[in-house]
Specification:
CATH superfamily of the largest domain: Histidine kinase-like ATPase, C-terminal domain
Strand order of the largest sheet: 6-5-9-8-7
Largest sheet: 5 strands, antiparallel
CATH class of the largest domain: Alpha Beta
CATH architecture of the largest domain: 2-Layer Sandwich
Distance between the termini: 102 Å
Radius of gyration: 55 Å
Strand content: 15-25%
Order of helices and strands: HHHEHEEEHHEEHHHEEEHHHEHEEHEEHH
Number of helices: 16
Length: about 550
């Protein structure tokens, strides 16, 4: 049955550590024992050689060898046994030049020829090695035996039993294993400490659970519609889900690179990098309104979430338009009620001619205002916006005027963008002049879009729409407090506003959206000072107008003229 791998992280790490330490200890023991055995064999061979050399140096052995035939009771056997017993060798064998033994551990084998070839020793060479003879495996040393004149008369062979060498090796094994066991114990203790630390760092989550959590996290991060961006302590992108890549307009290859390198300079980069602090920070990226929140991590990095509020802002603008229309209708209802009361009073007093003149005057004034706007602004959406805003302005005590230079043909590519630009600029101008209107309420009465009949110091907003080729120039001026020179660039920053935010929405988006729309058309927007005091905003929208029919089809126009 196959053993089961433990499920707990602690047990897995400990088991792996023990296996590694056991393997390393076994390998180290093997690497140590192998040279030790060779060293012991070499020492035994040199010892056998030294005993053989000492035996051959005895002067009486060569003389006794030449004195008579081999005999178990002869002097050669006696001297060899004395040396063997004194040195602890397994055998000391002396042979003549024919290889006949003169000494042996077993006396009965004296007079027989040796089992191994003594040729190298009889040839004058010393030899060592491990071999097997009649006494078993042994470490051997062989030297030539010379007489007093140096002539070779025989050879001396000494052997040390290999079992003795092996015993030395076995006696060394327990010590080696003891040290290996100590190393194993230290390693097991270290593995225990590491395992507990790892368990603490992983909050007791098992390896299988970590893998499952990682898969669930990836699915969750890339499945939600909110963008998630994680930065390390050095500002490098560590995590980027699909929604964040789509909202920021960057690819997944941004991971690992600094944020300032993958995003252009601007408010979005500053908010994500933490250079702008706060909650629910607003920023605009590629025409999308994003709400960003950041949170620091224990490792020194940050995690930022991004919510797309583009559709919500579009709905808010539509709601603002509806609210503006409601305000205009309410203002007109208020004025119509007053005028109806005046007509009823004139009729009750029997002033019929005065009542008829009053009706004609009021009707003519409204008709003149509407006709004045529609004559100069041919686009129905834009003209309707101006008529509605004029009623709102009149209720707030501000005169909304259309500049005499206004000429807007019915060639606007996308009137909704122009309505957004013009509506935001007019609303800001009305807010700026509302304080002045409160100080001089009488100055704005009866000034609903009229020109020239407003007192010089009365609060007003003037709109100018001009077509310069394919470029549409929008100019909105007012005689309010104006914009300080130091803030003429800040007013176009996302979330920047001098007014307190309303409970139902955030401020600081209108002028930012105006700039984004202008940049989308390849144009620009700038804030300046109006002559005589106040502010003027100028927007240039290249290619916002379609070409005239005769310009778009010159060949057709030439044929029709002919």
């Amino acid at each position: 049955m196959r053993p089961r791998w433990p499920r707990r992280v602690f047990a897995q790490v400990l088991l792996v550590q023990l296996l590694i330490i056991t393997g390393v200890a076994g390998l180290a023991a093997g690497l140590f024992l192998a040279p030790l055995a060779a060293q012991l064999d070499d020492q035994a061979e040199h010892r056998a050689l030294a005993i053989a050399q000492a035996t051959a140096a005895q002067p009486g052995i060569a003389h006794s060898l030449l004195a008579g035939p081999p005999s178990p009771d002869g002097p050669v056997q006696a001297d060899a046994e004395r040396i063997r017993l004194a040195t602890g060798a397994s055998y000391v064998v002396v042979v003549d030049t024919r290889g006949i033994r003169y000494s042996h551990t077993v006396p009965g084998r004296i007079g027989e020829r040796v089992s191994t070839d003594p040729g190298r020793a009889l040839g004058g060479q010393e030899w060592t090695g491990i071999g097997r003879g009649t006494l078993g495996r042994s470490a051997r040393g062989k030297v030539p035996l010379r007489d007093g004149e140096g002539a070779i008369v025989g050879a001396v062979s000494v052997g040390i039993a290999y079992d003795n060498v092996h015993a030395l090796l076995l006696r060394a094994v327990p010590g080696i294993l003891m040290y290996a066991g100590a190393a194993l114990g230290v390693g097991a203790l270290a593995a225990l400490v590491v395992s507990r630390r790892l368990r603490k760092r992983t909050h007791g989550i098992e390896l299988t659970e970590i893998s499952a959590l990682l898969g669930e996290r990836e699915a969750m991060l890339h499945g939600i519609r909110e963008g998630v961006v994680a930065l390390d302590r050095h500002g490098r992108v560590r995590l980027l889900n699909d929604a964040a890549a789509r909202l920021l307009g960057i690819g997944r290859d941004a991971i690992g690179h600094p944020l300032d390198r993958v995003l252009p300079p601007g408010r979005t980069t500053d908010v994500l990098a933490g250079r702008v602090t706060g909650t629910d920070l607003l920023t605009v990226r590629d025409g999308r309104v994003l709400v960003v929140n950041r949170r620091d991590t224990a490792a020194g990095g940050t995690v930022a979430t991004l919510r797309d509020r583009t559709e919500l802002e579009q709905l808010r603008r539509e709601l603002d338009g509806t609210r503006g229309l409601t305000d205009a209708l309410r203002a007109q209802d208020h004025e119509h009620a007053n005028r109806l009361h005046t007509i009823v009073g004139l009729l009750e007093l029997g002033l019929y001619e005065e009542a008829a003149d009053f009706v004609a005057e009021v009707t003519g004034a409204h008709r003149a205002t509407a006709e004045q706007v529609t004559e100069r602004v041919r686009d129905p959406l834009v003209s309707a916006l101006l008529v509605g805003k004029s009623a709102v302005a009149a209720e707030r005590g501000v005169a909304l005027r259309v500049s005499p230079a206004t000429r807007l043909p019915d060639r606007v590519v996308d009137p909704r963008d122009l309505v957004t630009v013009l509506g935001n600029l007019v609303d800001n101008a009305l807010d700026a002049t509302a304080g002045a209107a409160a100080a001089a309420p009488a100055a704005a009465e009866g000034a609903e879009g009229a020109e020239g009949d407003v007192p010089h110091d009365a609060p007003f907003v003037e709109v100018e729409l001009r077509a310069v080729g394919e470029t549409l120039v929008v100019r909105v001026a007012d005689n309010g407090p104006g914009v300080p020179s130091a803030a003429r660039e800040l007013v176009f920053t996302d979330g920047w506003s001098t007014k307190e935010a309303a409970p139902h929405r955030r401020r600081g988006l209108g002028l930012s959206l105006v700039r984004r729309l202008a940049e989308r058309y390849g144009g620009s927007v700038r804030a300046g000072e109006r002559d005589g005091g106040g502010a003027v905003f100028t927007v240039e929208l290249p290619e916002a107008l379609r070409l005239p029919a005769h310009s778009a089809h010159p060949a057709h126009s030439a044929r029709s003229k002919g």
